[in-house]
Design goal:
By secondary structure, the chain is of the alpha/beta class. Helix content is 35%, strand content 27%. It has a single domain, classed as P-loop containing nucleotide triphosphate hydrolases (Rossmann fold, 3-Layer(aba) Sandwich), CATH 3.40.50.300. It is globular and about 50 Å long. 43% of the residues are buried.
């Protein structure tokens, strides 16, 4: 398989209220199309690691490369452009704008990237909503959707720019078992049939066990 993401000797410190070594010498490789679950107890560093991998946090030691591009040391504008083109985000809380429709929410990252016309962006956004079985709700205000439906819209939004990697932080943390299963099946389909790379932080061991690989963190280190 082709390597997509690599970290070398990542170290992360928090300094307030006192110095704390939160991530310790993390070296990790993720392949294209791989579905990786990051697990560990609260405070183990898994969400911190995800934020470093996503380039949202740049205060670390070591190096991060995605698709043969070294991202360590790049300025914030360069990283923001790289994220919008290459990384899709799904969070525990969907962060949809409730006064906008599902379709409008999904279109937003593509409008910001401005790679296509508005008409083409709308077509692509509808396609992504269909992919998560939410196209019939395209013109409904997102604030009127159920929690599970909102999370599926958030996944469609994460996919609209055709990212290399989808990074998810507790994507089923706010969902019941039925909706958690729907979200897992979407991620599995993205990985196995669509070729997307998925990196998901989760406390849900049933979710994690069905991923291609589990990476467990304990006290800031990867468990061998």
């Amino acid at each position: 398989m082709t390597e997509l993401l690599r970290t070398e000797h990542l170290n992360k410190y928090f300094y307030d209220p006192e110095s704390f070594h939160v991530l310790k010498d993390i070296s990790l490789s993720v392949n294209k199309g791989e579905f990786v679950a990051l697990i560990g107890k609260s405070g183990s560093g898994k969400s911190t690691l995800l934020y470093l991998l996503s380039t949202l946090d740049t205060d670390y030691e070591g190096t991060i490369s995605i698709n043969d591009t070294l991202l360590t040391g790049k300025n914030q504008n360069t990283l923001a452009k790289f994220r919008n083109q290459n990384i899709g985000f799904v969070f525990q809380f969907h962060f949809l704008l409730p006064e906008f429709t599902a379709l409008q929410n999904v279109m937003m990252p593509a409008l910001k990237l401005a790679r296509y016309s508005r008409k083409e962006i709308e077509r692509r956004a509808l396609q992504k909503l269909k992919q998560v079985d939410m196209d019939t709700f395209a013109h409904k205000l997102s604030g009127k959707l159920s929690g599970g439906q909102q999370q599926r819209v958030a996944i469609a939004r994460a996919l609209v720019n055709e990212p290399l990697i989808v990074m998810a932080d507790e994507p089923t943390g706010n969902l019941d078992s039925a909706n958690s299963e729907i979200v897992f099946e979407i991620f599995q389909d993205l990985s196995r049939r669509q070729g997307n790379t998925i990196i998901a932080v989760t406390h849900d061991l049933d979710f994690a066990k069905r991923a291609d690989r589990i990476v467990e963190l304990f006290d800031g280190s990867i468990v061998p």
